[in-house]
Sequence to fold (249 residues):
Amino acid sequence: MKNEIIYGRQPVRELLRANRRTLHSLSLLDSRKPSPDLAEIEGLAHKAGIRINHVSRQQLDQATDSRNHQGILVAASAYPTVGFDELVASAKNAPEPAFILLLDHIQDPQNLGSLLRTAEAIGVSGVVIPSDRAVSVTPTAVRASAGATEWIKVSVVTNLVRSMKTLQDEGFWLTGLEAILEAKSPSEIDLSGSVGLVVGSEGDGMGRLVRETCDFLMKLPMAGNITSYNAGVAGAMAMYEVIRQRPSS
Fold:
């Protein structure tokens, strides 16, 4: 399988710290200035026995299509997803109430990365994404997440509705974000137990079957003239509402 090129100091640092992937080599700009973060990255690479290459800026530019690589990249194995059953079992066995994020055909890697960064930061148990018509955890998504992808469990499923029904059978209550009249406000929904939060795609929102499978529909308050939030922002607001309602928050 082809290696992935991950670049940028924070994403590379998190790949090294999480140690979930096979890292084949680390490339550093040969004319870089010393800095604490680069020293930490080099130390982690040495400890892990990863080959370090000192390369020119032109070589880094070519490997990353001249993007903002910050003088560093790593060649890594593909992103390690987990099985759906494993994700659910892990969520249910955790001491805190289970919280799973389900993404219905998110297509922008920047939005995916933003959602995964928030999910990891607040302690979401895991994330479920469909295999078709949705972005996967690409290097762009890894960078957008600032490396948070390396710490969170992500499961890719062939049928999101079937996975939702499995969660319901396991005792999860599913709440979907939908800005429609009949949707409830956050204060009207109990999000303190085992929760599955569903966020729809950037353009069309949730698919019909996904929406009909949800136990609740939730709309976020809006006071301005714009009629919708960005998917990453809406998902982040809803995730924090779940955490706000938890007893430990």
Q: What stands out?
A: The longest strand covers residues 23-29. The chain has two domains: 4-76, 84-245. The chain has a mean pLDDT of 90.
